[in-house]
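Q&A log
Question type: sequence-to-structure
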Amino acid sequence: MVMSIVVLVILIALFSSSKSSQRKDLIASGHPAWAPIMYQKGDKIEGAGPEIVTKVFSDLGIKVDSLYEGSWDVVQEKAKAGTVDVLVAAYKTAEREAYMEYSIPYTVDPVVLVVKKGKAFSYDKWEDLVTKKGVVTTGDSYGQEFDAFIKEKLNPTKVATTGEAFALLNKGEVDYFVYALYSAQKYISENKISDQVDIISKYVSSEKFYMTISKKSSFVNRMSEVNTLLQKYSEDGTIGSIIQKYDLGTSSPKVN
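Response status: OK
Response body:
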C-alpha cells in the first residue's frame, strides 16, 4: 500500500513537471536590423515577424518572449543550441535545416544592391559583381544560390552592422552593399541619407521568409499546428495586414 502511494506521488510529480515544461514561455529572436520583419528595440526584437509568431503561438496557448539575443550569427548559434526556440524569420539554407525545422513560407524578401549616390553601375547578372568591391554583414544569408556564388566568385568585406556597411559606401571603399530592399529603405529613411545612396532596381534575389523552430526546442513538435495557422492567416489577409503595419507603404509581397 505504502509502495503504491509512493509510486502514485512520483507519477503525479512527473506529470506535473511535464505539463509545466510544456507551459514554459517560448523564447523567440531574430535579426536585429532586418526591418520591417525584425529589428532590435531595446532588449526586444520587434517587427512583423515577432507579431506573427506571437499571434500563432498565442492561438496555441503559448506565451512568447521576443528578445534581442545578440547579432544575427550569435542568434543562430543560440537556435542551434536550443536556448532560442524560434527564429521569427529566416531564409532557407541547407546548413540551417540541419538544426532547425522550417515552417511554410509566409512572405518574400527582395535582396538588392545599395550603392553610393552617383556611383550606380550596370547590373544585370551576378557575374557583373566580380570586378566590383562589395560589403556584406556577418552571418547573413541572401539565398543559398547567391551565398554559394559569393563564396566562389566574390570576396566581399564582412562587417558586423548595417551602419558599418553604409559607412564604407560613404567613404567610397566599396562599390555595393548587399541588403534586403525593405530594410534598406527603412534605414535610409530613418537616417535621412537618401541624398547619399541609391538602390539598384534589379533584385539580386527574392527569397522566402520562414519561421523556424530549433530541433532542440520543446516546441518543435508543434510545427504542423504552426503551419495550419500560417496557412489560415496567409489566406485571410492577416499576415499581409501585419506586415503592412511595419513597412514603408509598399504593398506586402505574396508567396507563390
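Response note: The chain has a mean pLDDT of 89.
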